[in-house]
Give the backbone structure.
Amino acid sequence: MRGEYLCQECLAIFPRRLKQRCPTCLKKITPRGEVCFECFGLSSLDGLFAASMYRSPVVSASIHTFKYRFIPSFAQPLGSLLAERVREIDLPLPDCLIPVPLHPRRLRFRGFNQSVLLAETLANELTPGFDIPIIKESLLRIRFTKPQMKTHTKEERLRNLKSAFTLLPTDVPLIRRKSIWLIDDVSTTGTTLEECASVLKQAGAKNVFGIVLAR
């Protein structure tokens, strides 16, 4: 439709990711992307649900435009699509949402954190009139790293994000015993979400589930 960046016709051709896989071994298919029995306890992330596939040209172009052409209004249609896919799998709602943080330097350059905007839309769409709490400033990115998509090996990805995240000590009570959804736009290998989940689990989070637009 004229005047819209992403119309319903465009969103309708976003492919659904019909099979979710264990985020640890990437082999076993699980109903909602939960960690499989064999991998249980091997990682901090309890599951990872991806609404679509990044290899789709329309998906990758939309996310790239959202982030690198600096168009925050993309958050509304993309967040609505994410909410629709989450409703389809009937995933139990969490106690709170935590967007994956940007480093302050990158946030100043971009002007917005796409994960925060997606989380806000997702919360509003899933529980109209009673938004799920969004914790935006407790989990911090304290190291400026290059994008994970520009790394080439598992070892390089791990080095790139080592000690990149921390949690404000004063906000530990907000995390303890909570069921948390970590919100991001894209997951490539899951390393970013795993690092964030590790910080949250160390603070006493009950479980941490990644929710992303595409993988």
Notes: DSSP finds eight helices and eight strands in the chain. The radius of gyration is 16 Å.
